[in-house]
Amino acid sequence: MKKIGLDVGEKTIGIAVSDALGWTAQGLTTLHWDEQDFSTAREELKRIIAEHGITEAVVGFPKNMNGTVGPRGEASQAFATWMEEEFQLTSHLWDERLTTMAAERVLLDADMSRKKRKKVIDKMAAVMILQSFLDAKR
């Protein structure tokens, strides 16, 4: 019963997967896609879901700081619905406020260059989204 964690942006999707016991999240990759055409992510997600035996998806849900849902949150809701329909997965929306900032802080603390940070920030945010979901469910 592995889970996939997704940090969905306009141009990239950070992807993390859980271990089989649902204890830890590991960063997997960053997928480049076109938010206007969800099918641009279909084949890569299909491959990852099959390869890792994924049964549930955890989609980052970027609420505004006051708890309201803005355009990015609505886009995540639409993507979670698409994931359920496209791959027959149970999808969970998970509050991701500040995860990208937290991921950036971790990478800065690791003294990673700006160029390298840009390549892994979405994957790191996906790890934080999935790990916080896993921790809350224990």
UniProtKB/TrEMBL annotation:
<comment type="function">
    <text>Could be a nuclease involved in processing of the 5'-end of pre-16S rRNA.</text>
</comment>
<dbReference type="GO" id="GO:0000967">
    <property type="term" value="P:rRNA 5'-end processing"/>
</dbReference>
<keyword id="KW-0963">Cytoplasm</keyword>
<dbReference type="GO" id="GO:0016788">
    <property type="term" value="F:hydrolase activity, acting on ester bonds"/>
</dbReference>
<protein>
    <recommendedName>
        <fullName>Putative pre-16S rRNA nuclease</fullName>
        <ecNumber>3.1.-.-</ecNumber>
    </recommendedName>
</protein>
<dbReference type="InterPro" id="IPR012337">
    <property type="entry name" value="RNaseH-like_sf"/>
</dbReference>
<keyword id="KW-0690">Ribosome biogenesis</keyword>
<comment type="similarity">
    <text>Belongs to the YqgF HJR family.</text>
</comment>
<dbReference type="InterPro" id="IPR006641">
    <property type="entry name" value="YqgF/RNaseH-like_dom"/>
</dbReference>
<dbReference type="Pfam" id="PF03652">
    <property type="entry name" value="RuvX"/>
</dbReference>
<dbReference type="InterPro" id="IPR037027">
    <property type="entry name" value="YqgF/RNaseH-like_dom_sf"/>
</dbReference>
<keyword id="KW-0378">Hydrolase</keyword>
<dbReference type="InterPro" id="IPR005227">
    <property type="entry name" value="YqgF"/>
</dbReference>
<dbReference type="GO" id="GO:0005829">
    <property type="term" value="C:cytosol"/>
</dbReference>
<feature type="domain" description="YqgF/RNase H-like">
    <location>
        <begin position="1"/>
        <end position="103"/>
    </location>
</feature>
<keyword id="KW-0540">Nuclease</keyword>
<dbReference type="GO" id="GO:0004518">
    <property type="term" value="F:nuclease activity"/>
</dbReference>
